[in-house]
Amino acid sequence: MSFYLSKILWLILNPFNIFIFITLLSIFLYFIKLSRLSLIIFFINFVFISFISFFPIGSYLIYTIEKEYHSNIKPPEKVDGILILGGATIPQLYIEYDQISLNGSAERLVESIFIIKKFDKAKVIFSGGSGLLNRPSLDHAQVAKFFYKKIGIETNKIIFEDNSRNTYENIIYSKKIANPKINENWLLITTASHMKRALLIADKNNWKLIPYAVDFKNIKDFKLIPNLNLLTNLNSFQQGSHEWLGLVSYYLMGRTDKIF
Length: 260
What we know:
Elements: H1 2-13, H2 15-31, H3 35-54, H4 57-66, E1 81-85, H5 91-97, H6 107-118, E2 123-127, H7 140-151, E3 158-161, H8 167-178, E4 186-191, H9 192-204, E5 209-214, H10 230-252
Parallel strand pairs: 1-2, 1-4, 2-3, 4-5
Helix pairs in contact: 2-3, 3-10, 4-9, 4-10, 8-9, 9-10
């Protein structure tokens, strides 16, 4: 139930959807002779969109999460298990063209190749089902399996968990498979801005994971200064909002013990 609720809430709270809704609302108010109220709402909406377009607010939201993992880019000497979170592939295009299709988080898969080869005795779990409401068969695990096979990695040594639909289920289902022992070192590979949420869920479920952050979106010396990368700033704001909304909502649902 919470999976469907989260999808509905994101449709409502998605910044782009909110901007469009407010714009349509202001137009509607104008046509029903509430022109003063319409202009006020339109002006506030315009100022806010302009602000997040010229200032990298979204990148800053992402940076505040990423910076904790700037030093977590090297694995420890001893690794007993490796957990790779899905989300780097586009299953629908894979089915359509029978080719590997990766998105902006491709580093999750690319970096995992080197880690799997480095720790060839470690247990490996790839976790990623379908996050789509209407296409449950389009899971990330099947694309990842095809990717590893083509790249020359023995897929029979990787356990592909394909039932999870979100980060919470990634951790819960993977822990059942891993059955980690207290003294084992399990490495978690995922996007740097996504790492905090995954680790908080694992901590809540008594699984101590070692972060191996990949797919950073900002340089270490990030500065919040205006620029003309308007579309990039808008897209980053959407991504940053999604991560922070995830942190807050998981805490409110009791899936984590803290927001950050």
